[in-house]
Design a protein that fits this description.
It is elongated and about 75 Å long. It is an alpha+beta fold. The protein starts with a strand and ends in a 29-residue tail after the last strand. The strands form 4 sheets. Strands 1-2-7 form a 3-stranded antiparallel beta sheet. A two-stranded antiparallel sheet has the order 3-4. It has a two-stranded antiparallel sheet with strand order 5-6.
Amino acid sequence: MLIRAYLTVSALKKEHSAHIPNGTLAAHIVGYTGTVTQEQLENSKTADGGFVYAHGDIVGQTGVELQYESALQGVRGEQTVYVDASGQVLTTAHPLSRKSGSDVVLTIDAKVQKAAEDALVDAIKVSRAAGFLGKAASVVALDVTNGEVIAMASYPTFSLSCFLSAAFHRPTGRVYSPKMPIIR
């Protein structure tokens, strides 16, 4: 994800980068990636004209990462190498070049998104100080001229960096609890 005037979910995420430049900003919108599940593997084999996953593929699990998976995925490269019994390369077949997926540009304005997230934190603090439980809140901001979503925030939020492990399949105990699920 790159920050410009708007947020962009980049196809570079398929490289499973260890750098999350914006921490919790728009985490619920962007979503996260993880190793393909058995169910996703099976479903990809029956999808008409869809991408067929292989074990170990990194795929969108929630948010924009999941919704636009087919655009973000790209094409994995491969090359067949023929070797003899001692491991010496005899010949190679014509390689299939790797192709990056597309970028998805969102209408989320990073400054408005940050302001919305900060306002939610402040609202929860005020609610708690007034004696209310103040456990969760959300806000959506639309551009009234065209209906585009310019901010969409939810509290509590989470850091996308907790999903960086390639072997990651579900939130860690430090983030996930049945009373406060990440995905509602």
